């Protein structure tokens, strides 16, 4: 079980948040509803989606390495 208050828990949460927002950007109805704001609190979703789509290779490698760490090393 990953604790949210530990450093690896924050990394897991951040990676899952970026991957989820990048996935939601591909869904047209959710894209216009959730990712339409580019500033403010709702802009965090848009910025995470942009990071997930532009750096998709790095994010995928980070997810795989974090999954290996959580499953086998922790």
TrEMBL record:
Alphabetical list of Pfam families matching this protein? DUF1242
Q: Where in the cell is it found?
A: Golgi apparatus membrane
> InterPro entries, per this entry?
Kish-B, Ksh1
| Main location (coarse class) | Golgi
List residues traversing the bilayer.
6-24, 44-72
Keyword terms, alphabetized:
Golgi apparatus, Membrane, Signal, Transmembrane, Transmembrane helix
* Membrane topology of the entry: Single-pass type I membrane protein
- Signal peptide annotation: none
What's the stated role of this polypeptide? Involved in the early part of the secretory pathway.
Q: Which family does it belong to?
A: Belongs to the KISH family.
Name assigned to this protein: Protein kish
Q: Which organism is it from?
A: Alosa alosa (allis shad)
């Amino acid at each position: 079980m990953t604790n949210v208050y530990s450093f690896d828990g924050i990394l897991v949460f951040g990676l899952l948040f970026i991957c989820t927002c990048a996935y939601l950007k591909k869904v047209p109805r959710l894209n216009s509803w959730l990712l339409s704001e580019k500033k403010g609190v709702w802009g965090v979703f848009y910025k995470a989606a942009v990071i997930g789509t532009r750096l998709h290779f790095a994010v995928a490698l980070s997810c795989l390495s974090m999954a290996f760490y959580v499953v086998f090393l922790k």
